[in-house]
Every structure is written in C-alpha cells, then in structure tokens.
Amino acid sequence: MRIAETVTFGGSGLDRAGRLRGDAASLARLLAGDCVLPIWRGRPLCAEEGALGWLPPGHPVLAGAEEPIFLGLDGEAPRFAADISHWSPEAGAEAVQGGFFDPGFQSHPALPGAPGFGDLRGLMLALSPREAELAATAKALVQWHRSHRFCSTCGAPSAPSEGGWHRRCTACGAQHFPRTDPVVIMLVTHGNRALVGRSPGWPEGVYSCLAGFVEPGETIEAAVRREVMEEAGVTVGPVRYLASQPWPFPASLMMGCHGIALTDVITLDPVELEDARWITREEMVTVMAGRHPEVRPARKGAIAHFLISNWLADRLD
C-alpha cells in the first residue's frame, strides 16, 4: 500500500539511536534541557493543544521518577520519557475518571500553565507525526517497565539498562526486552460490502474492523482467516497485507490486511462480538460522515478508520 506509513503513529522517521543506548556517559550528557516527557498513568504531558510537554531533568514534576528512558534523537534534540505514575493528585483536586476514553486533562500543581496529562487517544490527531511516534513509544515503554519489574526466569527483581530498552535480572542475569504484541486487523469485503463489528463495552453504536492477536506458530494470513471465522463465522479466502500501526494501548503492532470473504452468513461469537454486519460502500459513506442512524465509525487515527477510508477512496493498492 503506497500510503501505508501515513497512518497515525507511523512513518515519522525518528532516529531511535540504538547505537547510543549502551553508552551511559553519552546518555548522561544528552539528558539536559527540555528533553523529558512525563507519562502519568499512561497519559503524556501536554504543553499546549497539539504539543507534548518536554521538561528538564530536574523539574519538580519528575521528582521520584525512575531513570528516564531514552527514546531517540529528534533531529539533534535528545528525547527521553519518565514514568511519574506514583504521583497522586491532592485530596479534593479534580482528577480524570478513566474508562474507555476520558477527554479531560489531569492538571499538576507544578505546571500551572499547561493543560496537563491527556489521553493519547484524544491527542493523537493533534500531534505532529514525530510527536505522535514519540508519545506512542514512550507510553508503550513505560507500560512495559511497570509490568515487568520481576524476572520471568527466577522471579527476582530486574533493573532497567540500555537506556531503558532492556531489563536485566539482579539475581540470575537473565535479559528481558520490550514486548510488542502482534495483532491482525482486517478489512473483510464481499463484493461491494465490508464486514464490521462491535465488541461488548464499546461506546454505543461504534463499529470497526474485526481484529485479534496472532497466535504462536501462525502466519498473518492464517490469523486473519481464523479470527474472522471464530468471531463472525465468515470464511475468508485471499488475504493481503496493507499497512501497520504501532498501537500503544498498551503495546500492540496492528497489521492491517484486506481479506476477501467467500461466504457472507454471519454467525456471532457473543463473547467476542456484540454485533456484526455487512455495510455497502454507499452506506459506509454515510457512516464515515457521522450521519448513519445506527452505526458510528471507528475512531479517527485508528488503523481501522484508515483502512475503511482508503477502501472507499479506492486507495488500497
């Protein structure tokens, strides 16, 4: 797909500078100026609408944070991230509510002029491609460190190394690396129609492409066919890869594919899907415009929205 890397979170060409990760002295020299992005409970700091908030390493917001994670070089500017999830708003202070998506910002008393910490789902379209990639990388790495503090080999505590791109067991020396979960997400078509579904718990009326995790020993194509059959009872024949998207909720690589359905009778797995339906191109135009009486489109910025939009525009090649 010629425009594959225009998807949100992809294609900015960030220099991840892997050559510097093992050079502690160089990283220490780079850790200066406004170069650290605080992440609070999965939410990056915003300096203003459409811009991330980068702080100097000695800023009060970063007090108590672990050693910053090196994200790479934005041109000549070093970029780091720090987890400040240990911070709690003062009693009586307004706090974000969480849930599927919370559009609000969590303010911080040491940042009176900034909007605060925002949900990346709501911020992603306002950020530049470079800042979107940096935010996605930061969020995924911070989450990995929080969930992998102990060695999976012996159970002892592990410690960050290699600029935050590695953890080493303090007892047995086992090495652990950041995890990314492969997920297939598929635009399944049958003639002039596309298959969409909605999972239990999604916002009312929201439908999207079907998706699922790739299992061990499975190809991308096989995963597409299996997931569509398991969730909707539809047989898929030819499958081709289109585009991918890093999706930091918490750390997946969404591999977008186009599958041609050989059958069109839907048999739902109610555990996975609350509903699924075929929608014609003409009807999908109404959905994407927000004028359909029953169906709301996938979130803008998500690869599902990207795939459906480009199907409508005949740009899947």
TrEMBL record:
A Gene Ontology term for the protein's cellular component: cytosol
Keywords, comma-separated and alphabetical: Hydrolase, Magnesium, Metal-binding, NAD
Swiss-Prot/TrEMBL catalytic activity: a 5'-end NAD(+)-phospho-ribonucleoside in mRNA + H2O = a 5'-end phospho-adenosine-phospho-ribonucleoside in mRNA + beta-nicotinamide D-ribonucleotide + 2 H(+)
Pfam families (UniProt xref): NUDIX (PF00293), NUDIX-like (PF09296), Zn_ribbon_NUD (PF09297)
EC number: 3.6.1.22
GO BP annotations listed: NAD+ catabolic process; NADP+ catabolic process
Cross-referenced PROSITE patterns: NUDIX, NUDIX_BOX
Names of required cofactors: Zn(2+); Mg(2+)
Record carries keyword Transferase: no
Record domain Nudix hydrolase: where: 178-303
Molecular-function annotations in GO: metal ion binding; NADH pyrophosphatase activity; RNA NAD-cap (NMN-forming) hydrolase activity
Enzyme class, first EC level, given as a word: hydrolase
Family note: Belongs to the Nudix hydrolase family. NudC subfamily.
NCBIfam families registered for this protein in UniProt: PRK00241.1
Protein name: NAD(+) diphosphatase
Protein's organism: Cereibacter sphaeroides (strain ATCC 17023 / DSM 158 / JCM 6121 / CCUG 31486 / LMG 2827 / NBRC 12203 / NCIMB 8253 / ATH 2.4.1.) (Rhodobacter sphaeroides)
Organism lineage: Bacteria, Pseudomonadati, Pseudomonadota, Alphaproteobacteria, Rhodobacterales
